[in-house]
Design a protein that fits this description.
Radius of gyration: 26 Å
Strand content: 5-15%
Order of helices and strands: EEEE
Oligomer: single chain
Length: about 140
């Protein structure tokens, strides 16, 4: 069965807007843009997934909180370099699968004085000397 929706066009009072006599809508398909200028866009009553096309998603304020299901990046890069904030991980085990570099004069600290856990390094260890042009020893 087909369904339909009635909307009234208000082009007089506040500009071209559609006014719906009900807050319940059947399936809605938008061909060219959707703007929510005030209020809340709430999908919490739905058990369905939210999908986005290739246009990307921007979150301008309030941050992003994921309470269930996790976050998976299946392509592209995770880049937080534009932020001066911190990056914290969970208390569970964390695995870095690729090479890791600490840039410029930034430091790498394990634990705190008097309360650090053991550090285990496998493979060759190369320690560089301080100063410009100084070589490394192994």
């Amino acid at each position: 069965p087909r369904s339909h929706l009635v909307a009234y066009c208000d082009s007089y009072s506040v500009g071209n807007r559609l006014i719906f006599p009900s807050t319940t809508l059947p399936t809605l398909e938008v061909d060219s843009g959707f703007t929510l200028s005030a209020g809340t866009f709430d999908l919490s009553a739905s058990s369905g997934a939210v999908s986005f096309g290739s246009g990307g998603v921007s979150i301008a304020g309030g941050g992003l909180t994921i309470t269930d299901g996790g976050l998976t990046l299946s392509a592209g890069n995770f880049d937080a370099s534009g932020s001066t904030g911190t990056f914290a991980t969970s208390t569970g085990a964390n695995t870095l699968n690729g090479n890791v570099a600490v840039s410029n004069t930034n430091t790498f600290t394990v634990g705190a004085a008097g309360s650090a856990g053991a550090s285990t390094l496998y493979g060759n260890l190369v320690v560089g000397a301080t100063g410009t042009g100084n070589g490394a020893t192994s």
